[in-house]
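>> received
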Amino acid sequence: MPLKKLKHTPRQARYLLFFAALLIALPSIASLYKGHEGKFIVATGAIEGSPFEETVIYLSRHDFWGAHGVIINKPIRKARVDHDFPEKKWHVHLYEGGPVKAAEHNAMLLKAEELPQGFVVTSIEDMRKAAPDFIALLEKNQNKNPLRLFMGYSGWGVWQLNREIARGAWGVIDYDETLMFRTYSKKVWKKAMERVLKDNPAESGGV
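>> returned
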């Protein structure tokens, strides 16, 4: 028995076309959303007892699909790092970047005056592929200023960080070069928290 052709009214057809177009355009629309990318998120009292307690995180990416960044106030002594970690011998300052741990997820923070905020956060693997000459300099310890090298990173899935911020787990403040590069690590969270309370006085009772 032959299948009957589906019939749609003109209105139904318009709806179907609209939703089809929306699905096709969704990736492009989602890519326009940048959330809090380029800002700091500051752990509040609602996040005590987790790996993020009293942390300040620079968000290198925050879009519709998720977010990732690196903790900026947890330096690590090289003596605590596994000897199998080859980048340990580079002229770098090591930091705990976050709870996501895998060799390919280690990140570097590179300073360069011509960049919008004076630096970029990139993975070591990407740097090995894109700039082998620069990696060769690091192997010989010829970089004058130490780079920041983050062990692991902090990551969130689709809309996960937005929900955590809405629940009060994180305060959000604008990027501050002094906080990033010229503040003693043990004081970074306190100073960032002062900024959160100053910018959002109504929320001070909940953090």
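>> The mean pLDDT is 84.
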